[in-house]
Structure formats: structure tokens, C-alpha cells
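Priority: low. Protein: Major facilitator superfamily (MFS) profile domain-containing protein. Input follows.
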Amino acid sequence: MADESYKGVLVSATDVDATHVNNSYIGTEKDVGSDLYKTEYNSNNDEYEEDQKDFHNQHSNERPDLFSSTSKEIICVLILTMAPMASSASVGGLQIGLEKIGKAFDVDSATLSWALSSFALASGSFFLFFGGIADIFGRRVVLITSFIFYAIFSLIAGFMKNFIVFCIIRALQGMASAASIPAAVGILGAAYKPGPRKNKVMATFAAGAPIGFIVGIISGGICTEFLSFRAVLWFYAILWGIFSIIAWFVVPRTKNDIPLTKKHILEGLNNIDYGGTFLAIAGFTLFVFALSQAEGAPQQWKTPYIIALLIVGVVIIALFVVYETYVPAKPLMPMSLWTTSWQFPLCMLIMSANWMNFTGTLSYYGTLYFQVIRGTSPILTTAYWIPQAIAGMTVNFIVALTLHRIPGKILMLIATLSFFASALLWAFITVDIIYWAIPFPAMILVVVGADVGYNVANMMTLTSVPKSMQSSAAGVFNTILQLSTAIGLAASSAVASGISSTFEEPLTKEEILKSYHGAFYFAAAVAGCSVIACLFLKVGTYGNGPKKSEEENTA
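Result:
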């Protein structure tokens, strides 16, 4: 019945005013299928009554009552933005120093990839679980706890001398990061009503991921060049230790934060979807492990255990979807996201393609281009990426001011075209070309695509579920992005390896670059498909009061 309740919330919100821009994210009333779901909500459901009130008065630019002052609100939003920053900074900070990490642990390049993959594997597998935990036990306590454990595991990882133990600690660090993001999104999504103020807040939050990646590259480059790669981990331990203390004082308690008494804890434990949790973690872990390990396996994609793990992972994920649809009363993944309208699955498909390009191909091979082809030092590579951070902040500022004016379909089209243009630029890069000719515009375009697309998709996700499911929905969204990164990296690596295998060892820089070109052409093909998919997307403006739907505006 819990699953049915939030289906009713979605449709009844549409029934209040079918032309509210909030609902243009999932199309017009006929697209949502309100007649099908209208009868499924429980009229006595308190959550439904509260959400319906919010939709009646939804377009607000006022400060939420949770915050006693604007300054406290700003500090809180900035602290919550540290959640996505933790994940991307951890990747960027070590990616820039991979060569020295390999020498420190004396491991080959195939094994070395686990310094990054272990973090991504754990975070991607646990997003859904921690999204549900945050909705059940309280987002504030989950957020603060995750910051504390992220700091602790960062500190411990810096002291590890054994590579296997180092990767295990990195995985625990990834789990802590996976807990913080859904909790932070849930706090913001439930606190703000749709409107320009929420647009600015969510755009600020969205800037955390790309800016965090650049902060990671900058801090990692400085630490690796002048100190040690271990220093960047200790730096993160200090930072997020401080952030956890600040969060305790500035992140407000909400209705979602239950008293942590024995009674409430037991009730919360009874509400956990244990079957879905097991299937999600097992399926995503095996799937991502197989993709991450394939290129380093003895026979690469032909290695028997890679094929077996990949098949088993896909089967378990399929079982997870079936299980979540029919079995639990309170599913780990709200299935109404996928069944209420085909617009949400289409939007997630587009974002999956975007992230296959962003972190799975263009950022990864862009870094390799500087370090392997150009032979630049970590500190110089860091300098090359700084303009992207500035562009990321600028783009998010612009998006915050335009989400309620420009239809989401147009913004998403801009995002996909930016990825397509960036991939094509990288595909034509040469060994000696100057930085400003191709690398610079390509790096700017990719962050335009990432930030614009993330904002539109994130808003669509949060408007597709009631307040009590905000963290779970965020877990779904971020799981898709994490899996897409793994798929993009595996696919682009397979293309690059296939091309490099046609040359005799040792490869020249020109031959290595040709293999990179193959990866960039793959990214361009994926981006081209996402551009075509955007033509079928029906996403209107967000937070601008009642107005015509996107279809009517086009007419």
C-alpha cells in the first residue's frame, strides 16, 4: 500500500493543475496516465494531504521555515554541497597521481586501476541502500555520520602500505560517500518548494560534483608534486572532519529525522527492504566489477570469469527489478519513477549516455592525453583543468537563473550537443596542438553538458516522488550515473585497446593517440544518440508558476 500511496501523490498533484510547470517534467496529464493511478492513493494518507498543500502553494521564492536566517541557509546549502564534492574529489585527487601510486605500491597498470575502481564500485552499489536508510532513519543523522566516516577512512587510507588493504579502505570510503549524497539531496528536495530559490539551491548543489573533481585534481596535483599522494587523503580527512562538525550545527532537523530511541530504531529496521538491498548490492557489485576488471584480465573480455560475472550481475539486476515491482510494501527503489510516465526513463537514458561520456570517457582520456601523450607533470595537468572548474561554477549560476524560463527539453538538448561537440574536438586532437585550440574548448563544452544535464535530470527526479521518498529517488539517479561511468569506461577502453592491439610494441605516442581517438569517436557516437533521444523528451520549465505545457509553448 505504501507503493500505491506515492503513486497517488504524483497523479493527484497533476489533477490539481495539469499545466503546472512542476508536472511538465513528466508531460501533460494525458502522458502521466492520471486516470490509471488516481484511484490508487489512500485518501487518509497524511503524506498525500501535506504534499497536496505544497502543490497548491508550490511556486515559492521564500526562505524555508527550517532556516532562522539567510546566512544559516547559505552555510547549510554549501555544507550539503560537500556531499557530491566528496565523491568527485576522491576520484580526481588520486587520478592525477596514479603513476606515483603505482610506484609506491609496486603494482602494474591493470591492478592500479583498483585505486579508483574500488571507490566507484562501493559507492555505485550502495547508493540505493543508503537512499532508503536516509528516508527511514533521518537524512540529517545519515549525512553527518557519512561525513565522519568519510574523514576516518580517508585518514586510514593514507597510512596503508598494502595495496589490497588500501583498496578495501577506499571501498569503505566510497560507501561513506554513497550515504551522504542521497541524504543531502533529500534534505534540499524536501525543504524547498518549486521556484527560483529552489533552482538556485539545486544548481549550487549540482556544482559540487564537477567542482569537486577539479578540487581533487588541484589538491592531488599539488600534494603529489610536492609531498605525497597520501597527503591528499589526509587533507580530505581534515576537511570533511571540519564539515561534519559544521553540519551538526547548521543542518536543521526535519520531520524525517526520527528520535533515535530503541523503539524507533526497531521500527526503522523493520521497514528496510532487505531482499531488495541484497539483490541491488550483489547485482551492481558483480556488474561493475566485471566491467572494471575486463581490460586487465588475462584474456580481457574473453576471460571466462569476466563473462560469468557479467551475466550473473545482469541476471541479478533483472531479478531486483522484478522483486521491487511485486514483493516489498516499501521498495528500495520507487517503481513509480519508471511506470508513471515514459519521460523519466527517457531522461535517465539520456543522462546515462551523458555520464558515459563525462566521467567514463572524455575526462579520463583527456587526463591521459596530457600525462601520456604530452608528458606533462601532475601540477601542469592540474593547471590545464582549472578553467573547467571556473566554467562549471559559471554554468551552474546561469542554469539557476534560467530553469524557470527555458524549457528543460531545450536545456537538455544544449547539454547533449555540448557533449557531442566536445567528443568531436577530442577526436581530432594531435600530439603537438596548442592547449587553447582544442583541449580548452573541449573541456569547457564537457562541463557545460554535465552541469546543464544534471540540473534538469535532478529536478525531474525530485518532482517525481513525494517528500518522504526524496533520498530514495536520489539514490536511483546517482546509481544510474555511477553505473554509466563504469559502462562508459569499459566500452571506451575496449575500443582503445582494440585499436592499440593492431600496432606492434612498443607503441609510439602517435599510435597511442590513435587508440584514444577511437575512444573519443565512441563518445561522439553515444552523444549523437542522446541528441536524437532529446527530440522525444517533453520537459518544460521549472518553478515559474502555472503556465502552458512545453507542447503548448512549442505550438
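The radius of gyration is 23 Å. The domain at 70-273+328-554 is CATH 1.20.1250.20 (Growth Hormone; Chain: A;).
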